[in-house]
Amino acid sequence: MVVTVSTPVYEGPLDALLHLVTTHQLELYDIPLGDVVEAFLADMRSTGTVDLSALSEFLVILAVLVELKSRRLLPGPDEVETDEEMEGWEARDVLLARLLECRAYGAAGDAFAVLAERAAASVPRSAGIDDTIVVDPPDLLEGVDPGQVTQAYLRATAPRPVPVVDLAHVTVDTLTVAEAVGELVAVLPGAGRVSFRALTTHLTTRLEVIVRFLAVLELCKQGRVTLDQGSTFGDLEIAWTGHAGTGTGTGTGTVDGDVGPDEYEG
Q1: Helical H runs in 127-191?
Q2: Which of 91, 113, 135 lies at the terminal end of a domain, its last residue?
Q3: Does some domain include residue 154?
Q4: pLDDT in tens, 9-47
Q5: What is the CATH number of the domain that holds 217?
Q6: Chain centroid, CA 200 distance in Å
């Protein structure tokens, strides 16, 4: 039920009135609270019923309005802060939440009462089947011969085929570090000092660039190339030495096996 009031300066829902007052859109001095009470009582008399939730809401809002008006009318050492004025509004929200909880529990209690009332009209049967009545359960194996039982057992115990996902329609490009190393060994001896960017300009996929970089690190690990980067994020310069040894540079790991498209993401 929406509580509505009518005053010389405002007519509408009571909670909207409180909102307008707290947001300073309506002057509280211009609102006679006595008229608010009379309007509410007249509304309650016209309906002929008393809604406890609406009555509780009205009392809380009216108490907040009375407190706000008394603070502004009575002299005090300090001005009243807006946060303090909103304490009454927060108390109203808590009270309304509790009222809603009480109404929910009350509705649940009414539902259980209706179920109990309906169940009271039912009379349970206290006697079982008469002793003179013979109940013969059906024979579940009627018409089943031993051969059918054997076949059913063999079907139940037969090994299930392992599910296989058909990937014939998927094209997977497999690149190996070993192949990339072979390509670099064939190119670098006659290329002199070359940048990694120049070695990979013809590549079209990121995966190919990654495999080629791993191949360069493998050659550096073997001591067959030297790496130099003049500045941070600058081009990586590669120079062929051709001597296998402990190696220097950034190649510190061992790279073995193939590199598939799922092993590197970026």
Answers
A1: 146-157, 177-187
A2: 113
A3: no
A4: 777 777 777 777 777 777 777 777 777 777 777 777 777
A5: 1.10.10.580
A6: 43
**Residue that the structure tokens 């609406």 belong to:** 54
Based on the fold, state whether residues 15 and 106 are members of the same structural domain: yes
97 shares its domain with 8: yes
Residues 215-253 have pLDDT tens digits of 999 999 999 999 988 888 888 999 998 766 544 444 333
Residue-number span of the structural domain to which 209 is assigned = 175-259
pTM of the model: 0.31
Q: Say how far apart CA 116 and CA 79 lie, in whole Å.
A: 59
Cα(204)–Cα(223) distance, integer angstroms: 28
Q: CA-based angle 134:140:143, to the nearest 5? A: 115
Q: Once rounded to an integer, what is the mean pLDDT over residues 122-145?
A: 76
Select from 95, 113, 131 the last residue of a domain: 113
Please work out, in degrees rounded to the nearest 5, the angle formed at the alpha carbon of residue 145 by the alpha carbons of 143 and 151.
120
Does the pLDDT of residue 92 top 50, yes or no? Answer: yes
DSSP state letters, 184-204: HHHHGGGT-EEEHHHHTTT--
d(CA 199, CA 217): 14
Distance CA 226, CA 190 (A): 15
Question: What is the residue whose two structure tokens read 């008394």?
Answer: 70
Q: Which two tokens stand for residue 57?
A: 């809401």
Instruction: Give alpha helix (H) positions in the chain.
Output: 14-22, 33-47, 52-73, 82-120, 146-157, 177-187, 196-199, 206-222
Which residues have a Cβ under 8 Å from the Cβ of 217 and sit 6 or more positions away?
250, 251, 253, 255
Three-class SS state of 167: coil
- Contact criterion met (CB below 8 Å) for 33 and 5: no
- Contact present, 87 and 58 (Cβ < 8 Å): no
